[in-house]
Amino acid sequence: MYKSYQFRIYPNKQQIIMIQKTFGCTRFVYNHYLEKRKEEQLTSFDMIKELPNLYPEYPFLKEVDSCSLR
């Protein structure tokens, strides 16, 4: 038997902006590494190890939590 719970959240304007930034940066990192995987064989470990090198090149990634980008 499976159970599930659904929760409705009511974020304020500041939280909505942060959620949108987080989703946008996560999508950017995903697409970036998807493109790199097409060019060369990368493992998940290689991608996580290379992630800090993206911060100087794309400073907007520092605005969100780094755990969501992994």
TrEMBL record:
<dbReference type="Pfam" id="PF12323">
    <property type="entry name" value="HTH_OrfB_IS605"/>
</dbReference>
<protein>
    <submittedName>
        <fullName>Helix-turn-helix domain-containing protein</fullName>
    </submittedName>
</protein>
<feature type="domain" description="Transposase putative helix-turn-helix">
    <location>
        <begin position="1"/>
        <end position="39"/>
    </location>
</feature>
<dbReference type="InterPro" id="IPR021027">
    <property type="entry name" value="Transposase_put_HTH"/>
</dbReference>
